[in-house]
Design goal:
Aspartate Aminotransferase, domain 1, Aspartate Aminotransferase, domain 2, 497 residues, 14% strand, alpha/beta, four-stranded antiparallel sheet
Amino acid sequence: MSSNTILFGAMALPSGRPPVGINLQEWLYVELRDAMLTGRIPPGSKLPGSRALAKHLGVARGTVHSAYQQLFSEGYTVSRTGSGTRVSVELPDTKLRAFSLDQGDGADVTVRRTPPVTDWLERLSATPAITRRKILPGLLPFFPMRSDVHSFPIDLWRKLHIQQMRSSKVETLLDYDPAGLPSLRRAIAQYLGSARGVHVPEDQIVVLSSVQQGIDLCLRLLARPGASVWMEDPGYPGVRQLMTVAGCKVVDVPVDQQGMRIEHGVQVAPEAELIYVTPSRQMPTSYQLSPYRRRALLRWANASGAYIIEDDYDSEYRFIAKPIPALRSMAGADDSVILAGTFSKLLFPSVRLAYLVLPPHLVNNFTQALALTSRHPNSLNQAVLAAFFDQGHFDRHVRRMRKLYSLRAEALNCAAQQHWRGLIEVPEIRGGLDIAASLLVGHETEACERMEKAGVDVMPLGRFYRSPKSGGFLLGFAPYEERAIQEAALKVRKALT
C-alpha cells in the first residue's frame, strides 16, 4: 500500500492532497482508476458514499461526485438503485489490453500490409499518368491552367467571409441541401443566363467541389460497366483517367480545327453512352466546336440516348469577342447535355467550388448520390461566393481579369515572335489561360528537361494526346506579368539553342 492511500473498509483509497497546480477532481479520478486497475480496489467492491469519502479526504463533496461520474461514464463503475456504486467486474482497460495480454507485447509481430486487389485499384494502377506531375518551386512561367491569384480581391473576399461569420448568420455553419446553398444556385442560374445563354431554374443546378467530382458522378450514374464513352484526342488527361478507372471503354475521338470529329465517333462507337467535350475552347488546342458539329452532336445524342458532358472550364476568358454561348444553350440540349463549370479558374484554385447543370430527370439521382458520397461542399465558401455574386463583384472581377489576361496573351505573342522564331510556334491567342504551342526543333521531352534546368516550367503537349503527335507545349500566360514573360522567353531561347 502506497503512502498516499488509506484503508476504507477493505479498500486502499487515496489520501493526502495532490501536488500544487493539479486539479482535485482530476487527481482523485486518476487515483481511483489506478487503484481499480492494480487491484487495490477489487472488482465488484462497493465504493464509499461521496459524503464519507469527501470527509476522509478533506475535499468538497462535489469533487468526489464529479470524479465518480467520470469513472461511471467511462465504464469503471456501475450504479444500481439500492446497491450504490460498485467497481465494474470487467474494466475497460482490461478489454483493450486483452490482445497484448494473450499474445505478448506484439513487438515481434509484424504484418506487412498491401492494398487489396480490387478491379478499381487494378484500373488505377494501369493508368501511370495519374501520378502527380512534378511542379517546380513557386509558380514559374509558363505553368498552364492557372489564374492570377495575386490579382484577386482578397481583402474584399475576407470582408465578405467575416460578414458570413456574424452571429446573425450562424446558420451558415450548418449542413445544407446536398445540391448546394440555394442562394448560390440562384446566383449561378442568373450568371449562366446572362453570360452563357443557358436559362435554367436553380433546382437543375447542383454545387460540387470540382468538375472532376462531377464527371466521376456522371460516369457512376450514367455509364454502365464496360460502356463505350467518347473522349477528345487530344483531351484533358484527368477525365480519360477517370473513364479508365470507372471501367469504361474509352473511345478516343480525334480533334481538328473544327473541334471533335463527331462523324468519327459515330462510326467507331455508335453505342457510346457518354461523350465528354470542351466545345467553347477545346483543351488543349483552343479550337471551337463548329456550329455544324454542335448540331450533329446534339442530333446524334438525342437519337441514341447518350449524354453529353460539356466542360465549360474557362470559356469566360475570350479576348476577341463575346464568349461563345454554351452547347447547353442550344435547342434540343435540355435532356441530353450536362454542363460542368468551375470557379477555380475564374476566382482561385482553393475555392473548390464547381457546378453541374442537369437535365430535369437527373436531378434527384445526382442529389441522392451527393448526399451519400459527399454531403455538400463547404457551405461557408458557398455563402461567401453567393454574396460575391449578389453584390456585383463577380462580374467586375471577370471583366477586369479578361482585360488583364488579354494584355498578357499579347505579351506572350510578342515574346514568341521576338525570341522563338524557328524554335517554337505560338498561334494567335484568342482566349483562355494558356495556349498550345508547337516545338519546331528537337524532341519534346529533351526540350522540357532543358527548360526546367533553365528555371522555366512548361507542360508537354504529349501528355494530352493518345495518337502520335509532333512535340509541343501547353504554355500558361495568365498568372505572369509582362516582364516575367519576357525574361522567361529569353531563358527558353537560350535553353533550346
